[in-house]
Backbone:
Protein backbone atom coordinates (compact mmCIF):
# COMPACT_ATOMS: atom_id res chain seq x y z
CA UNK A 1 0.00 0.00 0.00
CA UNK A 2 2.83 2.38 0.89
CA UNK A 3 4.70 1.58 -2.33
CA UNK A 4 1.55 2.19 -4.36
CA UNK A 5 1.09 5.54 -2.60
CA UNK A 6 4.64 6.61 -3.45
CA UNK A 7 4.28 5.44 -7.06
CA UNK A 8 1.08 7.45 -7.34
CA UNK A 9 2.92 10.54 -6.09
CA UNK A 10 5.71 9.87 -8.59
CA UNK A 11 3.26 9.78 -11.51
CA UNK A 12 1.64 12.98 -10.28
CA UNK A 13 4.76 15.08 -9.73
CA UNK A 14 6.45 13.80 -12.87
CA UNK A 15 3.59 15.04 -15.02
CA UNK A 16 2.58 18.18 -13.15
CA UNK A 17 6.20 19.35 -12.99
CA UNK A 18 6.75 18.54 -16.65
CA UNK A 19 3.75 20.67 -17.61
CA UNK A 20 5.66 23.70 -16.33
CA UNK A 21 8.62 23.11 -18.66
CA UNK A 22 6.90 22.10 -21.91
CA UNK A 23 7.46 18.35 -21.55
CA UNK A 24 4.59 16.17 -22.78
CA UNK A 25 2.11 15.25 -20.05
CA UNK A 26 0.75 11.71 -19.78
CA UNK A 27 -2.94 11.77 -18.85
CA UNK A 28 -2.71 7.96 -18.66
CA UNK A 29 -0.12 8.16 -15.89
CA UNK A 30 -2.23 10.68 -14.00
CA UNK A 31 -5.19 8.31 -14.37
CA UNK A 32 -3.00 5.48 -13.03
CA UNK A 33 -2.06 7.73 -10.13
CA UNK A 34 -5.75 8.03 -9.23
CA UNK A 35 -6.26 4.25 -9.54
CA UNK A 36 -3.37 3.62 -7.15
CA UNK A 37 -4.94 5.93 -4.58
CA UNK A 38 -8.26 4.11 -4.99
CA UNK A 39 -6.51 0.82 -4.25
CA UNK A 40 -4.92 2.38 -1.16
CA UNK A 41 -8.35 3.46 0.06
CA UNK A 42 -9.62 -0.09 -0.39
CA UNK A 43 -6.65 -1.41 1.58
CA UNK A 44 -7.39 1.00 4.46
CA UNK A 45 -11.05 0.00 4.55
CA UNK A 46 -10.11 -3.67 4.72
CA UNK A 47 -7.30 -3.44 7.28
CA UNK A 48 -8.54 -0.70 9.59
CA UNK A 49 -12.12 -1.92 9.76
CA UNK A 50 -11.57 -3.95 12.95
CA UNK A 51 -9.67 -1.21 14.81
CA UNK A 52 -10.87 1.76 16.80
CA UNK A 53 -8.66 3.96 14.68
CA UNK A 54 -11.21 6.38 13.30
CA UNK A 55 -8.90 9.38 13.48
CA UNK A 56 -6.14 7.63 11.51
CA UNK A 57 -8.64 6.21 9.03
CA UNK A 58 -10.34 9.58 8.50
CA UNK A 59 -7.03 11.36 8.11
CA UNK A 60 -5.90 8.87 5.47
CA UNK A 61 -9.21 9.14 3.63
CA UNK A 62 -8.89 12.93 3.66
CA UNK A 63 -5.36 12.68 2.27
CA UNK A 64 -6.41 10.27 -0.48
CA UNK A 65 -9.44 12.26 -1.63
CA UNK A 66 -7.42 15.50 -1.56
CA UNK A 67 -4.73 13.90 -3.73
CA UNK A 68 -7.29 12.55 -6.19
CA UNK A 69 -9.16 15.88 -6.28
CA UNK A 70 -5.98 17.83 -6.95
CA UNK A 71 -4.99 15.40 -9.70
CA UNK A 72 -8.38 15.79 -11.42
CA UNK A 73 -8.05 19.55 -11.02
CA UNK A 74 -4.68 19.55 -12.82
CA UNK A 75 -6.02 17.20 -15.51
CA UNK A 76 -8.85 19.66 -16.17
CA UNK A 77 -6.32 22.48 -16.41
CA UNK A 78 -4.05 20.55 -18.80
CA UNK A 79 -6.68 19.00 -21.05
CA UNK A 80 -7.43 20.55 -24.44
CA UNK A 81 -10.82 18.86 -24.88
CA UNK A 82 -13.84 20.81 -23.63
CA UNK A 83 -15.76 17.69 -22.57
CA UNK A 84 -12.73 16.27 -20.75
CA UNK A 85 -12.23 19.56 -18.92
CA UNK A 86 -15.85 19.51 -17.77
CA UNK A 87 -15.64 15.87 -16.67
CA UNK A 88 -12.41 16.36 -14.73
CA UNK A 89 -13.72 19.51 -13.02
CA UNK A 90 -16.86 17.68 -11.90
CA UNK A 91 -14.75 14.79 -10.63
CA UNK A 92 -12.48 17.20 -8.71
CA UNK A 93 -15.47 18.94 -7.10
CA UNK A 94 -16.89 15.58 -5.99
CA UNK A 95 -13.58 14.48 -4.47
CA UNK A 96 -13.11 17.75 -2.58
CA UNK A 97 -16.53 17.26 -1.00
CA UNK A 98 -15.37 13.81 0.12
CA UNK A 99 -12.28 15.39 1.68
CA UNK A 100 -14.31 17.57 4.01
CA UNK A 101 -16.73 14.77 4.86
CA UNK A 102 -13.80 12.78 6.25
CA UNK A 103 -11.26 15.26 7.53
CA UNK A 104 -11.77 18.98 8.02
CA UNK A 105 -8.75 20.11 9.99
CA UNK A 106 -5.95 20.17 7.43
CA UNK A 107 -5.26 23.63 6.05
CA UNK A 108 -3.62 22.27 2.91
CA UNK A 109 -6.92 20.73 1.82
CA UNK A 110 -8.65 24.11 2.05
CA UNK A 111 -5.78 25.72 0.16
CA UNK A 112 -6.02 23.16 -2.64
CA UNK A 113 -9.79 23.55 -2.82
CA UNK A 114 -9.26 27.30 -2.96
CA UNK A 115 -7.07 26.92 -6.05
CA UNK A 116 -9.82 24.85 -7.67
CA UNK A 117 -12.46 27.49 -6.88
CA UNK A 118 -10.18 30.25 -8.14
CA UNK A 119 -9.63 28.44 -11.44
CA UNK A 120 -13.38 28.00 -11.85
CA UNK A 121 -13.78 31.78 -11.31
CA UNK A 122 -15.40 31.49 -7.85
CA UNK A 123 -13.04 34.07 -6.44
CA UNK A 124 -14.88 35.12 -3.28
CA UNK A 125 -15.35 31.47 -2.29
CA UNK A 126 -11.68 30.82 -3.00
CA UNK A 127 -10.67 33.69 -0.68
CA UNK A 128 -12.70 32.10 2.13
CA UNK A 129 -10.97 28.74 1.65
CA UNK A 130 -7.52 30.36 1.62
CA UNK A 131 -8.41 32.23 4.80
CA UNK A 132 -9.55 29.00 6.43
CA UNK A 133 -6.25 27.38 5.42
CA UNK A 134 -4.37 30.27 7.05
CA UNK A 135 -6.39 29.89 10.25
CA UNK A 136 -5.67 26.16 10.46
CA UNK A 137 -1.97 26.51 9.63
CA UNK A 138 -0.43 29.89 10.37
CA UNK A 139 2.83 28.74 8.74
CA UNK A 140 1.29 27.79 5.37
CA UNK A 141 3.09 30.42 3.27
CA UNK A 142 1.43 29.13 0.09
CA UNK A 143 -2.03 29.84 1.53
CA UNK A 144 -0.96 33.39 2.43
CA UNK A 145 0.53 33.87 -1.03
CA UNK A 146 -2.62 32.55 -2.74
CA UNK A 147 -4.91 34.72 -0.61
CA UNK A 148 -3.11 38.02 -1.18
CA UNK A 149 -2.27 37.19 -4.79
CA UNK A 150 -5.98 36.65 -5.48
CA UNK A 151 -6.91 39.95 -3.82
CA UNK A 152 -4.46 41.66 -6.16
CA UNK A 153 -5.81 39.73 -9.17
CA UNK A 154 -9.33 40.94 -8.39
CA UNK A 155 -8.16 44.56 -8.38
CA UNK A 156 -6.11 43.96 -11.54
CA UNK A 157 -9.08 42.42 -13.38
CA UNK A 158 -11.21 45.47 -12.52
CA UNK A 159 -8.49 47.80 -13.84
CA UNK A 160 -8.31 45.82 -17.09
CA UNK A 161 -12.11 45.90 -17.41
CA UNK A 162 -12.14 49.69 -17.00
CA UNK A 163 -9.38 50.03 -19.59
CA UNK A 164 -11.29 47.85 -22.05
CA UNK A 165 -14.51 49.79 -21.50
CA UNK A 166 -12.72 53.11 -22.11
CA UNK A 167 -10.65 51.78 -25.03
CA UNK A 168 -7.37 52.40 -23.18
CA UNK A 169 -4.50 50.35 -24.62
CA UNK A 170 -1.62 51.19 -22.27
CA UNK A 171 -1.61 51.24 -18.46
CA UNK A 172 -0.49 54.87 -18.28
CA UNK A 173 -3.62 55.86 -20.18
CA UNK A 174 -5.55 54.99 -17.05
CA UNK A 175 -4.28 58.21 -15.46
CA UNK A 176 -6.39 60.31 -17.84
CA UNK A 177 -9.64 59.04 -16.32
CA UNK A 178 -8.45 58.50 -12.74
CA UNK A 179 -10.33 60.73 -10.26
CA UNK A 180 -8.58 62.51 -7.40
CA UNK A 181 -10.37 60.34 -4.87
CA UNK A 182 -13.65 58.66 -4.05
CA UNK A 183 -15.27 56.01 -6.21
CA UNK A 184 -13.70 54.88 -9.45
CA UNK A 185 -16.04 52.82 -11.60
CA UNK A 186 -16.22 49.12 -10.58
CA UNK A 187 -13.14 49.43 -8.33
CA UNK A 188 -15.12 51.42 -5.77
CA UNK A 189 -13.31 53.71 -3.36
CA UNK A 190 -9.72 54.17 -4.58
CA UNK A 191 -8.37 54.69 -1.07
CA UNK A 192 -9.88 51.38 0.04
CA UNK A 193 -8.34 49.61 -2.96
CA UNK A 194 -4.92 51.12 -2.16
CA UNK A 195 -5.29 50.00 1.47
CA UNK A 196 -5.93 46.43 0.26
CA UNK A 197 -2.86 46.66 -1.99
CA UNK A 198 -0.70 48.01 0.87
CA UNK A 199 -1.90 45.20 3.13
CA UNK A 200 -1.03 42.59 0.49
CA UNK A 201 2.44 44.10 -0.08
CA UNK A 202 3.17 44.17 3.65
CA UNK A 203 2.04 40.59 4.30
CA UNK A 204 3.85 39.17 1.26
CA UNK A 205 7.08 40.94 2.24
CA UNK A 206 6.85 39.62 5.81
CA UNK A 207 6.31 36.04 4.60
CA UNK A 208 9.20 36.29 2.13
CA UNK A 209 11.61 36.90 5.03
CA UNK A 210 11.08 33.30 6.13
CA UNK A 211 10.35 31.71 2.74
CA UNK A 212 12.91 33.64 0.73
CA UNK A 213 13.24 30.94 -1.96
CA UNK A 214 9.55 30.97 -2.94
CA UNK A 215 9.53 32.95 -6.19
CA UNK A 216 5.78 33.61 -6.27
CA UNK A 217 5.93 35.82 -3.19
CA UNK A 218 8.23 38.25 -4.98
CA UNK A 219 6.41 38.65 -8.28
CA UNK A 220 3.10 39.06 -6.45
CA UNK A 221 4.69 41.77 -4.30
CA UNK A 222 5.98 43.42 -7.49
CA UNK A 223 2.47 43.30 -8.93
CA UNK A 224 1.21 45.03 -5.78
CA UNK A 225 3.61 47.94 -6.34
CA UNK A 226 2.57 48.15 -10.01
CA UNK A 227 -1.14 48.27 -9.12
CA UNK A 228 -0.51 50.91 -6.48
CA UNK A 229 1.34 53.01 -9.07
CA UNK A 230 -1.61 52.73 -11.46
CA UNK A 231 -4.13 53.91 -8.85
CA UNK A 232 -1.83 56.56 -7.36
CA UNK A 233 -2.77 59.93 -8.84
CA UNK A 234 0.72 61.26 -8.05
CA UNK A 235 2.35 58.64 -10.32
CA UNK A 236 5.21 58.01 -7.92
CA UNK A 237 7.89 56.38 -10.12
CA UNK A 238 9.56 54.94 -7.00
CA UNK A 239 6.74 52.40 -6.92
CA UNK A 240 7.73 51.18 -10.38
CA UNK A 241 11.40 51.06 -9.40
CA UNK A 242 10.45 48.95 -6.37
CA UNK A 243 8.39 46.63 -8.55
CA UNK A 244 11.23 46.14 -11.04
CA UNK A 245 13.81 45.51 -8.33
CA UNK A 246 11.65 42.88 -6.62
CA UNK A 247 10.76 41.24 -9.92
CA UNK A 248 14.43 41.06 -10.89
CA UNK A 249 15.05 39.11 -7.70
CA UNK A 250 12.20 36.75 -8.60
CA UNK A 251 13.89 36.14 -11.95
CA UNK A 252 17.18 35.41 -10.19
CA UNK A 253 15.41 32.71 -8.21
CA UNK A 254 13.70 31.25 -11.27
CA UNK A 255 14.31 32.82 -14.68
CA UNK A 256 11.67 30.53 -16.26
CA UNK A 257 8.92 31.59 -13.88
CA UNK A 258 5.99 32.76 -16.01
CA UNK A 259 4.64 35.13 -13.39
CA UNK A 260 7.93 36.99 -13.09
Residues:
Amino acid sequence: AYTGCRLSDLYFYKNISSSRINVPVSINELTDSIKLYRSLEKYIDEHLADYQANYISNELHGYIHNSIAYTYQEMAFLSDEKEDKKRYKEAAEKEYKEVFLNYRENGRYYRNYGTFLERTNKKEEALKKYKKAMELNKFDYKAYNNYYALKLKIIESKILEIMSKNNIKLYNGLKSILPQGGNFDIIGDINDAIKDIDDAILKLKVISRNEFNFCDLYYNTAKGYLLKYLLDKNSDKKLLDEALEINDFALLLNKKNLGA
